[in-house]
Amino acid sequence: MTVPLLSLRGISKSYGQNRANQAIDLDVAPKSIHAVLGENGAGKSTLMKVIYGVEQPDSGAVIWEGEPLSLASPAQARRKGIGMVFQHFSLFETLTVVENTQLVVPGRKAELADAIGKLGRDFGLEVDPLAHVHTLSVGERQRVEIIRCLLTNPKLLILDEPTSVLPPQSVERLFETLRRLRDGGVSILFISHKLEEIRAICDRATILRGGCVTGHVDPRKHDAHDLARMMIGRDMPEPLPALPISGGEKRLEIIGLDYRPDDPFAMPLSTLSLTVRSGEILGIAGISGNGQSELASLISGEVVLPGEQCERIYMMGKDVSTLNAAARRQLGFAFVPEDRLGRGAVPEMSLTQNSLLTAHPLNLLRYGLVDEPKAMTFTNECIRQYDVRTPGPGVEAGSLSGGNLQKFIVGREIMLSPKLLFIAQPTWGVDIGAASAIRRRLVGLRNEGMAILIISEELEELFELCDFIQVLHHGVLSPALVTRDTRPEDIGRYMIGAHSSQEKASA
Ligand SMILES: Nc1ncnc2c1ncn2[C@@H]1O[C@H](COP(=O)(O)OP(=O)(O)OP(=O)(O)O)[C@@H](O)[C@H]1O
Fold first, then answer.
1. Start and end of every ABC transporter domain (predicted)?
2. Residue 193 and residue 314 in one domain
3. Do 276 and 152 have their domain in common?
4. Given pLDDT bands bounded at 50, 70 and 90, which one contains residue 505?
């Protein structure tokens, strides 16, 4: 048998009482694409951090090309030929793309900018090398991370949910890249919750549940249902059928919104209109960077329109164009931003304190002071209802696994019982069991009359959830398409701007 590129033997790692990895064995063969799958909090990211030298195991051995290896830092791992793209980005916001690259890859700026441009063109990872990272969307930031890693020529490339923010067109291109890299001798450790992707690209898969390995399989020999069962230990629930559209009252209306951001890298929005009624789900499709974050901050109230631009955004029938986020929330609006660490939650604060950020109007304050028992009860209820895997409400939000934090934020906002719920990327990084639970919940709320607006890059998700879909491209919104009469290819054409304005007018 060929010597594995990487072997793990009995790796264990705990955070306090939390046993994130328990006696993990795993072999990554040369020239293979190896999936690691498991529910949120199963221990995948922790294991990858051990391999990349971010965390040191409490016990067990890492063997690299047949030799024992002890890694004190990621820099050491990179020197050995191990590269990693994280689920949470590690870019400096105030630096440009090329400056961020220079921190990891030696070279002159101009050469690196050329190399970034070339990789972008070859692999569909286009990004402006001179753009400042704070101006980039989440999707673009991930592209930078992937490019930066590829520039270090790794022998083992660890990708933590690399496709979660890529537009569908780029996923297949990324896969071609990964296959090419594998054929050229690079092994890839691939973490994903998308079982069909794992079946399409991986030749081995290791399944984790509760910090332990529950199986090593060839994913091509199992269907997605089988893999899901191994991962979550039970069958998946069926999606909830949507009731017929109610034609209810308008809860969100945007009329001819024009917006020119101060930031020269941000996307201007032009004559944008949409309506979401009670008992409806409207989805905004599109590749990130086409105005999604600008639109989201205008709807959430994080950015308020200038005084002369009133009568553009209505919520619950009231002109909110110049109202701030708090005033909009008072009308019954709730919002889950795509950036869960930073804007959705404060990582250094406990879950209970994070509950208070938006849920304080639910009588969680008394005489201006926090009503601790009530705040804790609310948080415990959110943890229970949304199956957030965590030791309790007192832990810091930043210590939760990515998917569990997402479940917590979505749960917190839904528990406000808003009249209008706006969610960006509802199931980003959430495992398939929890994602289907969140989708069922959203359809249930819609059936009960909530108005829901979703921004998602996942077409499948939009098709499963939405009554109507509009596509955002270059700051322009397509007409509302009735989902059941629309094919993914139609949406795809709008996504790349292949519809003329003539067609749009008559579509
Ligand atoms: N820095 C930390 N401090 C405390 N607990 C942690 C820390 N990092 C991870 N954990 C805990 O370890 C467990 C495994 O988390 P990990 O992030 O490895 O899961 P995961 O499988 O990658 O999940 P996801 O799919 O949601 O990203 C979780 O219970 C998590 O809360």
1. 6-235, 252-499
2. no
3. no
4. very low
By alpha-carbon position, which residue is closest to atom 31 of ligand 1? 400
Are 37 and 136 found together in one domain?
yes
Q: Is 40 in the pocket of ligand 1 (CB under 6 A)?
A: yes
Ligand 1 centroid distance, CA of 401 (Å) = 4
Same-domain status, 324 and 356: no
How sure is the predictor about 169, in pLDDT bands with cuts at 50, 70 and 90? low
Whose Cα sits closest to atom 16 in ligand 1?
A: 43
Structure tokens that stand for 506 in this block: 């008559």
Residues 282 and 354 in one domain: no
Is pLDDT at 83 greater than 80 in this prediction?
yes
Q: What ipTM was estimated for this complex?
A: 0.96
Q: Residue 193 CA: which ligand 1 atom is closest?
A: 25
Pocket test for ligand 1, best of 18, 51, 207, 208 (most atoms within 8 A of CB): 18
Q: Which ligand 1 atom sits nearest the alpha carbon of residue 406?
A: 26
Say whether pLDDT at 196 is over 80: yes
Torsion of CA 195, 199, 204, 210, to 10 degrees: 10
Strand partners, 281: 452
Q: Summarize pLDDT for 335-366 with one digit per residue, the tens.
A: 999 877 777 889 999 999 999 888 888 888 88
The predicted pLDDT at position 305 comes to 86
State the residue for tokens 């090329």.
98
Calpha distance 444→425 (Å, rounded): 18
User: What are the CA-CA distances from residue 38 to residues 29, 61, 225, 396, 409 (Å)?
Assistant: 20, 22, 13, 23, 21
The residue whose CA is least distant from atom 18 of ligand 1 is 43
> What is the per-residue DSSP string for 137-201?
-HHHHHHHHHHHHHTT--SEEEEESTTTTS-HHHHHHHHHHHHHHHHTT-EEEEE-S-HHHHHHH
CB of 139 closer than 6 A to ligand 1? no
Query: Mean of the per-residue pLDDT values for the chain?
Result: 88
244 domain-assigned: no
Residue 338 maps to a domain: no
Contact 283 CB / ligand 1 (< 6 Å) = no
Cα 44 to middle of ligand 1, angstroms: 8
Ligand 1 atom having least distance to the Cα of 404: 26
Length of the chain: 507
> Same structural domain for residues 264 and 316?
yes
Q: What is the mean pLDDT of residues 386-409?
A: 91
Supply the range of the domain harboring residue 457: 250-332+418-506
CA angle 314, 319, 323 (to 5 degrees): 105
Q: 395 lies in a domain?
A: yes
Q: Which of 149-158, 324-333, 354-363, 498-507 has the lowest mean pLDDT?
A: 498-507
CATH number at residue 489: 3.40.50.300
Tell me whether residue 239 is in a domain.
no
| pLDDT at residue 204 in the model | 96
Does 253 have pLDDT greater than 80?
yes
- On whether both 121 and 216 belong to a single domain, the answer is yes
434 close to 39: Cβ distance less than 8 angstroms: yes
- pTM over the 0.95 mark: no
Which atom of ligand 1 is the closest one to the Cα of 400?
Answer: 31
| Any ligand 1 atom below 6 A from CB of 217 | no
Higher-confidence residue: 138 or 505? 138
Q: Are residues 367 and 218 in the same domain?
A: no
Give 397 Cα–ligand 1 centroid separation in angstroms. Answer: 11
The tally of domains found in the chain comes to 3
